[in-house]
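Figure 2 data, in text form.
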Amino acid sequence: MPKYRLAQLNIASMKAPLESPVMADFVGNLERINALAECSPGFVWRLKDEEGDATAVRALGDNVLVNMSVWEDVASLAQYAFKSAHVEIMRRRNEWFERLDRAYMVLWWVDHDHIPTLAEAAERLAYLQKSGPTAHAFVFKNAFPAPDGQGLAGAAEETRDLACPGT
């Protein structure tokens, strides 16, 4: 069993309230995309609220949505994020969310049995925004192996040419 798993956080600043017509198509796809994540190879855990998604979690601001999950490795998350039906939603991001001028996604390694907190995730994102990618906080394009040297098998193909906008 691997000693580490990959945690990720991404944030998005909504253009309008979640209940507005602007956000309707995004909201209408949440259940489908979350279900896809949960049945994807390598998926471990995702942040959920009482509704089964994380839209009520506003720890980083009233108009900021957070998505946090844990995966077995970088390749598993990249496969889901960039090569599944999730990508169709990602391509439409600008319809629903403001363009951020800083990193809005961060990856980091956690102990195999650790579920990260939002405070931990926010710290990793702030670190990435301030210091750039390091083993402490990184992005797909500059992925670092887990502390035991594992976690990047198969990732080169999945993450080649990928970048986190704003980094």
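Caption note: The CA atoms of residues 34 and 86 lie 9 Å apart.
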